[in-house]
Amino acid sequence: MQDIPQETHHETTRLTQSAQVVLWEIDLTVVGGERYFFCNEQNEKG
């Protein structure tokens, strides 16, 4: 980190995402269903 210019370090820190994306899966195949995948973010469909 000593070789990185301070301005560059500030820019990369500023660009880092602070949000956490949570992913999960519901597997209903054992009862004849499907596998569903979800996350806590909206997609183009809302």
Note the topology.
Blueprint lengths: L5 H10 L7 E5 L7 E5 L7
Antiparallel strand pairs: 1-2
What descriptors fit this protein?
46 residues, alpha+beta, 2 strands, 22% helix
What does this structure look like?
- The structure is a single chain.
- By secondary structure, this protein is an alpha+beta fold.
- The protein has a domain at 20-46.
- The chain has 1 helix and 2 strands.
- Strand 1 (23-27) and strand 2 form a beta hairpin.
- It is elongated.
- The mean pLDDT is 80.
- Please give the largest β-sheet: 2 strands, antiparallel
Rg of Cα set: 20 Å
Please, how many helices?
Answer: 1
Portion of residues in beta strands equals 15-25%
In short:
The protein is built from one helix and two strands, in the order αββ.
